[in-house]
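Lab notebook, bench 4. Still working through the backlog of constructs that have no structural model yet. Next entry is a single chain of 467 residues. Request: give me the structure tokens for it.
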Amino acid sequence: MDYRRTYIRDLFDLPPGNPATAYGWVKTRRDSKGVSFVQIADGSCFKDLQVVIEAGTIPEETLKRITTGASVRFDGDIVESPGEGQETEFKAHSVEVYGEADPAHYPLQKKGASFEFLREIAHLRARGNTFGAVFRVRSRCAYAIHKFFIDRGFHNIHTPIITASDCEGAGAMFAVTTLLDAQGHGPEAKAALRAMEFSEDFFGKPAYLTVSGQLDAETLALGMTNVYTFGPTFRAENSGTSRHLAEFWMIEPEMAFCSLEGNMNLAEEFLKEVIQDLLDNCSADLEFFNQRIEPDLLSTLHHVVNSGFERMTYTEAVDRLAKSGEPFEFPVFWGSDLQSEHERWLTEIDVGRPVILTDYPKDIKAFYMRQNEDGKTVRAMDVLAPRIGEIIGGSQREERYDVLEKRIVEMGLPLEAYWWYLDLRRFGSVPHSGFGLGFERMLMYVTGMKNIRDVIPFHRTPGSAEF
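Model written out:
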């Protein structure tokens, strides 16, 4: 056996009469008039391969071992199929059963199972239709993202997972320490952690799992011009919503000598090209999601690819929302953080296509965003898409030393933790911009899956760290 073997996806391209070998896992087996029909899959494509075993071809004792969940190798021929909906099928001459699966205990039976149950058996769920499709799309989407940036001359960089600074200034970070067994949760635990003497700890100072690679990416951008990260990030929010994970992946490009306008242009190009790649290369999987998960998914994705993104300021958006007459659950006023219902109204009803909002109030944005001359807003941007709302967030970064230092102090962050970040503004500072895209949020959008736990192989959420 070799990794360069033929996959099931390749067998569908073979004309009848060709000998072949098929590897995979059994999804179903049915017997009719002495003939057995076995559906197998290997995860290489959405379609199952139908294997026909004629009576007397395989010993009865071996046939009994071919049950749902078993792993097998069939040798045989590609033949024309008399059945509707398929051109060819696989006529087996012999079989090797690599691993049996007791049908009385195998949890992935033909009958449907809820997504909640499938999360409990996440180690097996990739064998089913839905999650095989999800993870194929995830794989292709990662490839398309790397290709997009590399084709434009960006350098892929790897930023630290362990950090001593909080990029977002929100404090929702996991501590990394060899001193503590447990400190519990909440502000008391955080205060106790900060009060401890860390000189004896592994790093000699408080350290955390990063919530973003952005700050470190800026250091590389201000020397290599255009860079991007694609890596795991962590947030210790005690949230059990369908849109939050404790461990997730982020794509974060950073560009020197780039204004907010250039940042918006990149974000629009990025979404369009990645989605088009998935439409071109994952058509069967996306068609499944369109039929079973999210009606009109394909039309929405095509609409994003073919639309010019509307651009407006936060202030203009608040004015439109306030005059809309819509009974929003959350009130809209200048200075409020827009909610998903507001963002969807803008994209789906008011404008009818993706929207990029800019110039948000500085009090609801992070410390590193460049302040506008009005003293109230910053050069931030959010890309809003129909059906999901915000999908990308970014900004032009504050390149002025004195303004950035003052902002760090205003937000109660320790200046000493950002000495190196401030150094970038002391030595050859330039205007620069970047954005962040949550990979799992993107996957929810392109698959229509409703829970973020279902677009990552093994989810990490409050109370859940299995597998």
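Notes after review: The mean pLDDT is 92. The two ends are 28 Å apart (CA to CA). Flag for follow-up if needed.
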